[in-house]
Design a protein that fits this description.
With 522 residues, this protein is an alpha/beta fold. It folds into two domains: 75-229 and 451-521, 3-Layer(aba) Sandwich (Rossmann fold), CATH 3.40.50.1820; 250-441, no CATH class. Helices cover 45% and strands 10% of the residues. It has 18 helices and ten strands. The protein has helices at 2-18, 22-32, 60-63, 131-139, 170-188, 202-213, 236-249, 251-269, 273-280, 291-324, 332-343, 354-361, 366-370, 374-377, 386-396, 415-427, 433-447, 503-521; strands at residues 75-82, 93-101, 112-116, 142-146, 195-200, 220-224, 233-234, 399-400, 457-462, 480-485. The strands form two sheets. Strands 1-2-4-3-5-6-9-10 form an eight-stranded mixed sheet, sandwiched between helices. Strands 7-8 form a two-stranded parallel sheet.
Length: 522
């Protein structure tokens, strides 16, 4: 009998140690972290009826870049550029391609409008629609776009090893743009046609820098939500996004978002991996054993919020807040997870697997990299291709943090996460983030940061854009113009003037049209 009782006690002891229960782990974890102690009352609420939602669903078709391959009036043309523009003795060349729409072009009358891609986000959409397309029709101008080097079909090297990626830099890309301008002028037999560059995000930055470096080739530039002030680590994007949620959605909404991210961390720390997986419709559960797993998931959730706001702007923020506050019975994380499931319902599941991202970023053959279709990466928020991630880890940086910040998004994203992400994707233990810090400083110095000092420039900024502080807000140069668009996030001005536009957006688009038209005719 004693032996039997001893066996039962031993089994119960082992079960208590092996099977983690929520209450037990709450006690353990609260001793380590007083900030999560208040979550000890967290409870699940199961509802019999669905909650009405105001937020529109974000489908795949709404977020995928629009590409029209070999459309009847879009031609694919080759052009030659140097492999290494920065080494005078290296005269090797490579062949890239560009997309040309010249059906409106009239020699000696029209200009050449070149859209510069936003990193690895390539699209031909703006050759067929949008504000510059409308201006092209009225000014008899040609429309052009191309991939940046190392993306899609513009591959300068045989593979994507770290050594092969050494020709990937902003300076090399700017020089490619100059080569493209000369090629398009030759193709159209229009050596005197005025060339106008435009772009958004990083593409806007490259367009501005190309105007700075080659003013004789490029007549003017329009930068929509360009990023110019680079830094190694930054709290600003997520703090800005947090301020927007508080100012538009109110203090209660902001507090709910903050609690949702704290509860998210709490659930992971207390081994509620499967509950989190089910709540967010994850492809695989998140282990709390690895800080990088929790960081990539937190980063992905923040980027999902930001992406939704970039599509729906001011009204997207209001609907987001209305939805996560629509049922007072819910805990903050449950309400947020419900919003995620509703808005991103057009996906099988959400992929926040850190090591899957490392695996994909480690592909070194172009066949493997280009074999990643949109269906492969649609479930990943955010996803960066190997060349894009390399560029960020070696020059562009602006690595966002939540730790020790005033943002609403917890404290899981620390600098160690970013350095580990870069090192495991490329360099291993040899990765030195101080070299990245030096490269960022050199980039700002090379192109002037937020003072590029160029004439014939238009800078537009969405006042709600989390990256607006990295843009250009004033310019004293001749014929340079700065416009701020209230109640909008990134690049609300790229599309055609519409009856659905606000009066402020219509005014900015009208002024852009007048300025670009004048540049073409000068």
């Amino acid at each position: 009998m004693k032996l039997f009782l001893l066996s039962i006690c031993l089994c119960l002891t082992v079960a208590a140690a092996v099977v983690p229960r929520r209450t037990r782990n709450r006690e353990q974890f609260s001793k380590k972290d007083e900030q999560l102690l208040k979550l000890a009352s967290y409870k699940r609420v199961f509802k019999d009826e669905p909650v009405p939602m105001k937020s529109a669903r974000l489908t795949r078709d709404m977020v995928r870049p629009k590409v029209t391959p070999r459309h009847a009036d879009i031609e694919v043309k080759p052009f030659q550029t140097r492999l290494d523009h920065l080494t005078p003795t290296d005269q090797r060349t490579v062949e890239f391609q560009y997309f040309l729409k010249d059906e409106y072009f009239i020699t000696d009358m029209g200009g050449i409008f070149i859209y510069i891609s936003d990193g690895d986000v390539f699209t031909t959409e703006f050759l067929e629609t949008g504000l510059m397309h409308d201006i092209a029709i009225n000014t008899y101008s040609a429309l052009v776009t191309a991939d940046l080097r190392y993306f899609r079909n513009n591959l300068p090297t045989e593979n994507a090893t770290v050594d092969s990626l050494r020709f990937l830099s902003a300076e090399q890309m700017v020089a490619d743009i100059a080569q493209l301008v000369e090629e398009v002028r030759d193709e159209l037999d229009a050596p005197d046609a005025n060339v106008i560059l435009w772009g958004t995000g990083y593409g806007a930055s490259l367009a501005t820098w190309a105007r700075r470096e080659f003013p004789d080739l490029i007549q003017g530039v329009w930068s929509s939500s360009g990023i110019y002030n680079r830094t190694l680590l930054t709290h600003e994007p997520y703090e800005s996004l947090s301020r927007t949620i508080r100012e538009i959605g109110g203090d209660e909404c902001a507090d709910d978002v903050a609690n949702a991210f704290l509860e998210f961390e709490y659930l992971l720390r207390t081994y509620e991996w499967f509950f989190v997986e089910e709540s967010l419709d994850l492809c695989i559960f998140i282990w709390d054993f690895y800080d990088e797993e929790m960081a990539i998931a937190s980063h992905g959730l923040i980027e999902m919020i930001q992406h939704y706001f970039e599509v729906f702007h001011f009204h997207g923020v209001r609907n987001f807040c209305a939805d996560i506050q629509s049922d007072s019975r819910e805990e903050a994380f449950d309400a947020f997870a419900r919003w995620v499931r509703h808005v991103f319902t057009d996906r099988t599941c959400l992929e926040f697997d850190y090591y899957q991202r490392i695996y994909l970023a480690s592909h070194e053959t172009w066949e493997d990299i280009q074999g990643l279709s949109w269906d492969d990466v649609d479930d990943m928020y955010p996803f960066q291709s190997r060349p894009s991630l390399y560029h960020r880890c070696t020059e562009l940086a602006n690595l966002p943090l939540t730790v020790n910040s005033d943002s609403l998004f917890g404290r899981l994203i620390q600098q160690e996460f970013w350095f580990l992400y870069c090192s495991e994707s490329f360099y291993g233990e040899e990765y030195d983030y101080t070299e990245l810090s030096g490269a960022v400083a050199a980039l700002n110095q090379r192109f002037g940061g937020t003072q590029p000092g160029i004439t014939n420039a238009i800078y537009t900024n969405g006042e709600l854009d989390p990256h607006v502080s990295f843009g250009i807000h004033e310019s004293a140069e001749d014929d340079s113009h700065v416009f701020h668009i209230p109640h909008h996030f990134k690049s609300a001005d790229l599309h055609s003037i519409s009856a659905f536009d606000s009066a402020e957006v219509i005014e900015v688009k009208t002024q852009i049209t007048e300025i670009v038209t004048r540049w073409v005719n000068e």
